[in-house]
Amino acid sequence: MRIKVNRDKCTGCRLCLQICAIEHFNEINPKKAALRIEAKFPDPGKYRPFVCTLCGKCAEVCPEEAISRADSGAYIVDRDKCTNCGVCVPPCPVGVVFQHPDHDYVIICDFCMLCTELCNTGAIVKWEKAASLEAKGV
Amino acid sequence: MANGLAGKTLRIDLARGDIRSFPTDEGLYRHWHGGRGITAKILYDEVPRDADPLGPENILIVNAGIMSGCFIPAGSKVEFGSVSPLTNGPGDSNMGGHLGPALKFAGYDMIIFEDLSRRPVFLFVDNQTVELRDATKYWGMKSLDCEKKLKEDLGEDFEIATIGPAGENGILFSCITHDFGRQAGRTGQGAVMGSKKLKAIAVRGNKSIHVRNLDSLTKQVTEIILRTKKHPNMVPWQKYGTAFFIQWSNTNACIPAYNFQTTFYEDIDRIDGDQLVEKCLITHKACFGCWMNCGKYTKAVIPGKPEVHLEGPEYETGSLCGSNLGMKDINHVAYINWLLDNLGMDSMSGGGVIAFAMECFERGLISEADLEGHSLKWGSVDDVEHFLDMVAHKRGIGEWFAGGSKRAAAKIGRGSEKFAMQVKGQEMSGYDGRWAPGMLLSYMTADIGAHHNRSWTITVDMAEGRDTVEGRAKIVVYLQHIRPLFDTWCICRLFWGELDITPEEIVESLNHITGWGVSVAEVLRTSEMIWNLNRCHYIERNRDNGRSFDYPPARAWEDKIPSGPGTGKGLSLAQIDRMLDEYYAARGWDEKGNPTRELLEDLGLGYAADRLAKAGFLGRSIPGGIPPVRGEKYKPKAF
Q1: CATH of the structural domain A55-94, one choice from 3.80.10.10, 3.40.50.150, 3.30.70.20, 1.10.10.10
Q2: What is the ipTM of this complex?
Q3: Of B140, B225, B322, B431, which is least surrounded by CB within 10 A?
Q4: What CATH number labels A1-51+109-138?
Q5: Beta-strand (E) ranges in B115-224?
Q6: Quick check: B70 and A11 CB within 8 A?
Q7: Which residues 74-93 in chain A show a CB within 8 A of chain B?
Q8: Does B594 share its domain with B471?
């Protein structure tokens, strides 16, 4: 279970950020999403999505052992154990561990995959689907 | 607030540096829906009729609407409104990108700027922190350069709107720029911002927007997105954006070429959508929440000039700065697009003004001596670059053109008024109406001067008959009600026309967001209220019968199309008058184009009837009464 990023296909629409926050917080707020989009304008003029790579660094450094790997493969935050200390934020190599002032725990992708279902350009794709498309030469 | 609103409205007195925050007036939104509806109402109520649009009594409104930022397809718009220095009437213009949603995520639905600042400032909004900050170091910077610098100084995650030198110098068709290529271009909103010495607005927010029924909205919008992914228009739309229509318009004899002299461009293959994608495209670019990504972020590469990056040219700029200027290379069209964007001029009016000047040069009405030794020939990108520099800095005859083509024609005279292609002072969009009578009527009657977004009828004209004018007015009235609703809600209208999403579906989304429980008929009535309020406002400010403002330049009836598939086609003045007669009757206005008391009271605008009567321009009562429903429902055909 992974999300494949085709960085050149991202158009910066942020539908992924919106559906992510709706699914997990029942709110419209892209700043509560568990992925991010970097926009580099005017030069070179590119977007780049960043999603969890399942490297596990956040879990390794967590002093409260609040982040653990679920059977699904995703790293899940135990909202009761997490103290929102933020130690796990800097080690994330792609910058997708988030804090938001409304919440006292960190936000990490749980691989619900809704973002990949809405993305209309193939910029973020479910790994299995990406692999099968590539096998077909698409 | 669980109704799509952020909750707060800001009023900022720029002269005193005073920032006041109020709870957003929900009743005002329920009545006028937001966006251009609220800007129309506030401008009508607050700006004195004799106020100079560039003076202290004009206000500049920034409104993020009721649906923007609300997980609605293309819910990205923000509306700017002020009395227009270009048309001297109520003006509004909107843009996509991310600023409107950002404003709501910061907690604000609307900002109203009053009076004039004495020194350059920019507005800084970071959630509850709202400050007017010194902009001395940014003053004089070009629009795109200034956005880049502000992002470097404040942070990449700020959404920023700027003006360029044109707005600072009072060029009347100046725009407001955002997201390195999205513009509120029309009606000179950038000039008003410049008159207030407001260089930029920078916004960042991390709050949530709450809607009435998020589950229903999410389910509906997700279904629309998944369904329309497979729509046949999606692929060309994502690939070309509106540049797709450059070839289409040429084939169908409605593209403007050489300042609207003809509707056929022999070098169309050099400036079309394929050329744009092949030679210029860097990346596809979308507004907030849009899955159609019509934006094309591009580069223009011309030997001897620096490589420049821009968004576009889309259809309007591609035609008005392409075929309309006789350009023969897509890189040249893109470069002119960039020049206008960075100077901070509307690329639609800009294309119209350049084309008008080029025809004046061709006819010997202006000379190289007037142009500081330069020529201004069709197809010359160097000539355009020099001319725009004269205009942006009001050097020499550049000052004449700084007021748009209508004011320039008044200075030049000698018959040039005939081919200054504008209505009410605003230059036409990229469609020639001589063989598309509904389109011409749309320009003539648009409440902000010639502009296609109020009503676009090319496919209507093709379906109903391009040589006839009868019956077209009722359809134009209907489109003038339904299309501006998108600007009222602050969402993009393109997905409606192109992906077969029905008005009923969009109103259902509106109800999920607001809980208002309104019908399509009710929202159309709101739009008609807005239209009539703007009409009254325009007549009161300009003090003549409405009809006197509704005529196009004489080229529309004196010149037939000289080449291409539309050869020999054109309209007579009698046909134009007939369309106006039918239009006024369909609207419930009198034959002089003035709204009647019966109509205004039917729309709940009795106070506007009183003011119009006081000004001496209330329409005469119509024998037989006003039509019970104004406008005839019409389903525009997608391409």
Answers
A1: 3.30.70.20
A2: 0.95
A3: B140
A4: 3.30.70
A5: 121-126, 129-134, 159-162, 176-178, 182-184, 198-204
A6: no
A7: none
A8: yes
